[in-house]
Amino acid sequence: MYLYQRLELAGHNLKVLPEALGGLEALTYLDVSGNGLTDIDIVRQLGSLEELVADNNEIEAAPDFSHMPKLRRISLNNNRLKEVRSLCLL
């Protein structure tokens, strides 16, 4: 079993994040920038995540990050955000 701590999926033309991503329990850094993603809710399953970079996508609503106590940095620049939930709790 691999315990990935850092994963960079920037610029891979992903339209959805793979379900297997939710099983990477040791992941502390994730970069999914420049993919055209509209939904990143699966990141809520990443309890060890400390930094999320999801710039330059098509995300309209940020997930509820309130149950991610280790998350310290979120970058959602250049998206289509209309709704941001629970960012003030970080």
Class from secondary-structure proportions? mainly beta
Query: Looking at CATH, which topology would you report?
Result: Leucine-rich repeat, LRR (right-handed beta-alpha superhelix)
The largest sheet, given as strand count, sense and whether it forms a barrel, is:
4 strands, parallel
Number of strands: 6
The number of helical runs is 0
Helix content: under 10%
Instruction: Please indicate the percent range of residues in DSSP E strands (runs of 2 or more).
Output: 15-25%
Looking at how many chains there are and whether they match, the oligomeric state comes to single chain
Please, could you describe this protein's structure?
The chain has 90 residues and is mostly beta strands. It has a single domain, classed as Leucine-rich repeat, LRR (right-handed beta-alpha superhelix) (Alpha-Beta Horseshoe), CATH 3.80.10. It is built from no helices and six strands. The model has no long low-confidence stretch (mean pLDDT 91).
